[in-house]
Amino acid sequence: MNSEPLTPSQLSELTTGLNRVARNLWWTWNQDAQDVFRDLSPRGWRNLYHNAVAILHEVSDYELGVRLQEAAFAERVRGVIQQFDAYLNESDTWGCANMAHLKERPVVYFSAEFGFHETLPIAAGGLGMLAGDHAKSASDLGLGFVGISLFYREGYFMQAINQDNWQTEYYTLLNPKNLPIEPVLDAKGEPIQGSVRIATNQVYFRAWRVNVGRIPVYLLDTNLPENEDHYKDLTLRVYGGDASTRMMQEILLGVGGVRLLRLLGIEPSVFHMNEGHAAFLGLELMREKMAAGQSLEASKEATKRECIFTTHTPVEAGHDRFSSDLMAFTAHEFSKQLNLDHESLMDLGRVRAGDQGEPFCMTVLALRLSRAANGVSELHGQVSREMWQCLYPDVSVEQVPIGHVTNGVHLLGWMKGPVRAFWKDRLGEAWADEVNESTFWEQMLDPEFISDEELWSLRYRLRRELIEFTRRRLLLQGHHLTAGDYIAFDHLLNPDALTVGFARRFATYKRAPLVFQQFDRVVELVKDKERPVQFIFAGKAHPRDDEGKKFIQHIIHLSKFSELTGHLVFIENYDVHVARQMVSGCDVWLNNPRRPLEASGTSGQKTSPHGCLNLSMLDGWWREGYDGTNGFAIGEDSHPDSIEIQDRVDSENLFTTLTEEVVPCFFNRDQTGIPRQWIQKIRRAMATLSAEYSTWRMVRDYANRYYRPET
Ligand SMILES: *Cc1c(COP(=O)(O)O)cnc(C)c1O
After folding, report:
1. Average pLDDT score over residue span 453-460
2. What angle do CA 583, 585, 588 make, to 5 degrees?
3. Atom of ligand 1 nearest to the CA of 606
4. How far does the centroid of ligand 1 lie from the alpha carbon of residue 581, in Å?
5. Following DSSP, what letter does each residue of 319-332 receive, concatenated?
6. What are the phi and psi torsion angles at 91 (to 5°)?
7. Count of alpha carbons within 13 Å of 671, Cβ hemisphere only?
8. Which domains does the chain have, with CATH numbers?
9. Alpha-carbon span 247 to 254, nearest angstrom
10. Coil, helix or strand for 270?
């Protein structure tokens, strides 16, 4: 190509543009942008763990300038910047057309964790991933939306497995300079600073801003010289420390979050509490109203009109409960501000007012201080109504005011690069919006639109990529490797085998090792030369959950020292990146929670755009998603009362489905070697699940039901 060299001003336009793109997470769901960063330093891309900001530090301005003199590369960069600016300035969005009122007065979404990308590891699991996906889709849809959370400078723990196959945790300090975050400044260019009262101390905070496409998410940070050491570390780790730390973090999130909004001049129309962690925000709103002269009752009613609440789990431990002593010590400021004695304050978080034995429950507070509440799947809505009927003694279970909005995932964010390219090839430039609509996915049913051969070839490519990723990771995980090990790892796993994946938090109710209860039958499956099956597992147990750690230990032990060796692997340090590899590369996504404890589950929703099929209990979202043709169900739409019976029956059912339905369908090939029925299921899964279980659908549901002005 013959072209003029770039002028200094053209050059600086491109370099500043690229720097802007790197500091907005939009690039994580735009493949062209991602490819530009990767091509700047392919090795850095891998070693810096796909961190665009760090790449731009790794590549000097001089090098970047020289690279941009290559016309084709400059053209790509220009294209990315144009796409980015077009995205930011788009006025023709669903939100503009339908939710214009949120432009002036946004929804503010409070969440103790947000999962956006592997470079900003401030989520512990599905709850945080959901919050991140909610924000991304709110951006895509053009909603007026703001997120509030904390900046955990050591994030969530990283997992290592020691010689005893026991999970150990380690932490690394995040460096804000290398992250897509920026300090929040006031008009004078000084960091904005606020404070909250915790116990007898004034605790100061500042904030970081994360740009998630068109919307900001603010992360509060107490690591300031003004604070005592103890409070500097309040925002050290996601759910770090004991109940006291937890409560202090929640005061910061709820009260500090509201105060930050006031400092920024943001006037929310809705406060959305994602889980009970955020519920102290309601007490702060009441305080404000009382300070302005309203009565306690009036301020409570007014607060209620502004707040909505999403509950995420029927598991007991998922509902924060704080003792009376802890409340008296750490949160007595609320009593003072609301002019309540301690017992009356406690009663706001109790099911039975006046029951001094009952701790303060954040879920109860959230339900009391919101105008609407919802669970995250149909079944979970029902279970939540039963669970909290105690708060509404005058109404029947069906009338308990807790609805449901089934969770979803941000499709573009979860798609792997080759999959984005695959769909874009077929759709052209408009695909990024279309990919969220069911009309697009319904075309998958048409063999003219896409052939079995193309789909099968895509499946092979993705499985191959997962296997190579797994080999690389296992090599990195290995201790004291011999030369022979290196060769062995290069042959680990079989690219032709039916690959079953399981990855999520190792909470015990998720029963990671359930499939191995039928050990001899699993051995038979994996050793079958004609129809081989293999398993890939990953997941973290909570640092204090020894039962979960035993599950991990058990599975790793089997992978190393049983007949399953070579057919079962455990990938350490599960995170967003590992998740993306697995949900795309596996053929089958296994989920076998103890029903009805999986409120929704979202990892299975990430699979369908990649052509991976769900094999799951009829719990959470899958109870709604499964239609008999688009994947596989384990057991019935019911469950026994006894846990022992349930575990036994479920493991038997799991095996029956696996051996009688999944394996035969996968290996039933026609003369040309194509599993036609399997691919038909893939088509059905893509057509029926991808758009329906996206956050594009979910956020519109929230908007239509809960984000409209109060009437
Ligand atoms: C999607 C996801 C989860 C949630 O998985 P579930 O199956 O819903 O429990 C947890 N962690 C990560 C990293 C994820 O990507």
Report:
1. 97
2. 65
3. 1
4. 13
5. S-EE-HHHHHHHSH
6. -110, -5
7. 0
8. 8-89 (no CATH), 101-322+362-407 (3.40.50.2000), 414-693 (3.40.50.2000)
9. 10
10. strand
Q: Note if the pTM is more than 0.90.
A: yes
The beta strands (E) that lie in 552-657 are given as: 568-571, 588-591, 613-617, 632-634
Residues 523 and 563: beta-carbon distance below 8 Å: yes
**Residue 2, pLDDT score:** 56
Between CA 540 and CA 504 the distance in angstroms is: 7
Cα of 28 vs centre of ligand 1, distance in Å, is 18
User: Mind listing the pLDDT tens digit for each residue in 50-59?
Assistant: 999 999 999 9
DSSP per-residue string spanning 474-518 = HHHH-SS--HHHHHHHTT-S-TTSEEEEEES---GGG-GGGGGGG
Hey, which of 603, 607, 622, 695 would you mutate to test ligand 1's pocket, going by the most ligand atoms within 8 Å of its Cβ? Answer: 603
Instruction: Name residues contacting ligand 1 (CB within 6 A).
Output: 125-126, 129, 504-505, 574-576, 579, 601-603
Most ligand 1 atoms within 8 A of CB, residue of 574, 602, 622, 695 to mutate: 602
CA 443 to chain centre: 28
List Cβ neighbours of 494 (8 Å cut-off, separation of 6 or more). Answer: 532, 534, 567
Nearest to 374, CA basis, from 360, 388, 361, 362: 388
Local structure of residue 256 (DSSP, 8 states): I
